[in-house]
Each structure stands twice: as C-alpha cells, then as structure tokens.
Please model this.
Amino acid sequence: WSGRGELPGGDGWVALHLADAAPLTLFEPNFSEQGDLHGRVIDALAGGGAFFFRQLSTAVGLTEPVDDKDLAAALWDLVWAGLVGNDTLAPLRARLGATPRPRATVTRRPRRASALGSWRRPEMASAPNSTAPPTVAGRWSLLPAPQPNTTVRSAALAETLLERHGVVTRGAVVSEGVAGGFALAYKVLAGLEETGRTRRGYFVEGLGAAQFATPATVDRLRTFAADPEEGTAPVAVTLGATDPANPYGAALGWPEAEGHRPGRKAGALVVLVDGALDIYVERGGKTVLTFTADEQRLTAAAESLTAAVRRGGGRLRIEKIDGAFSLGTPLGNALVAAGFAPTPQGLRLRG
Model:
C-alpha cells in the first residue's frame, strides 16, 4: 500500500497495489518541502531492506539525535508523499484511531536456573519494535520507483480503469484524478480498441459515445438490460462514497436533494438498492439523505447499512434525515427495526 495525500483529521488517501505490478501503478511521489530529517530518513532507507522504527531511529540518529515524535511525523510525511511504505496496515489503523484487538493473556512459568547461569540470546535483549509507538509499527522501506516508460504505464492505467469501473467514462477518469486527464486515457483506450481489447459504444444512456468496456463486460451488461421481475426482493449494498463501485459523483451525477448536496467525500457512505442511490450518509453519520420513498427499498437499505456498521466494528449516530429529526421518519423507523436504538440525540448503533 502507498499514501496518496493527507486529509484533515489525520486521515489520508491510500492506494493498494499488486506486488508484482507495483511499479506500473505507483504514482509519482509528490513531496516538495523536504526537510533535513526527511532527507536523513530517505538516506537511511536508500540502502535497501526494511527497518523497524527503533532500527530506523538508530540509523537516522547517527549524525544527530532525533526525537521519536519528530521521526514519526517525518515518516508519515513521506508516506503521504508516496515515498515510503510499510509491510503491514497496523500503523495505518493505529493512526486512524482503530481500537486494537485485546491480546490474550499468556502465563509464563519462571525459567529454572542452569549451570550456565542466567542468559538470553542477544537478539532477544532488545526487540526492534518493543518501544515504538503503535503508529509506526511494522517495517519501513522505500517504495519501488514507478515505471519510467510512460507508454507502458499508460497502458497499465487503461487496463486498471477497465477492471475497476467496467465501463470507463469521462466522469470515471476525472474522479480518479488521472494525470493527463481523459484525453490521455481516451487515446490509450482507443488504441486498445484497434486490437480488440476494448469496445467503444453507447453503453450508459446520457453519457455520450466516448465509453469503453471489454467485450466480456458488454456481454454481462446485456444480462442486466431487462427490468427485474415483479416480487423480487431488492438487493442493497453499502459502499464508501469514494468507492469505484459507486458511480454517483463520477460516471453519474448526484440525484437532486433538498439542503446540502452529496459528494464523493472520504468517510461518507452510500447505499445502493438494485444499483440506484437510495441513501447517502455524511461522514460521521449525523446527517442522512434519502432518495426514495419506497418502504421495501428503505427497509433493504437500512438492513444493509446496519450490517455494514456492525461488520466494521464501528458505531454510528444519526441525528437528522432529510433535514428532519431522525426519529419517526420512514428511514428512521426502518433503522430502528434493523437494530438502531432511539436516543434523545437521535438513532444510535454500536458495532
């Protein structure tokens, strides 16, 4: 995993990469304000390998002592800049404030003294990460350098967009923040069309003809062309608002809503019912927007949202729904039936 930029509140964008193809999908590092400590960290990691925080602190502090807090801050600056990575997600979870799982208590029997006296192996004398803060756990290393050949990287980007979105549209490319924009992606996708790898067509109504998909995706779209049969239970899915599987705010525009407009914001959630947006949950959950009055669809959406919060072990408190106090609203009633508890402040669910 790699960082893609810091967000307010200690949050940030994260990108995931397949190990064998990482140079093709890693972004160019974006770090202009490099301080002395940042440079010393890069120099320490430049020799290759991975360092526990305490080992890195020793290597960086050879020329000048360094404080743990300063080193941790420098490390995360380099993470969000796309220069440094870690072999575990533990420090990321710790930084985001996730509650760690309690460790099982282990009862150790005292060692019996031997003829050789008290001893222990040298490597056990100072565990490399025993005193490191949780936000810098694991081993740190420099990320691989991105593929220098822009043609190869552009082709890999096009393949990634096709796999990620199914149907690649202008809005989908813009939402990804691709360097070069849709003009570059269009050129590469059109080249793939000449080889039969993609097809260009009018797959999604209202989005123009500059849409690309693989032949397998086009065939699958045809299976969903018919309207669902009557009596079929609606299928609801809860996603992050920024998830590529959520087309709203990217390929599709947001539905009209009273009050504030929804957006592809980190931490916000959407609930899609049979592919249509029915619920938008603002980051933190205090405000919710609905886009349907159908009781059956609201019930399915409420159950999906409840299951998603419980599955993630989090909590959610909803104060307002469509600008009104959440208790007594159609969605509020559906959420209570799904497991939310009514409180004086609104509806609450603990994971």
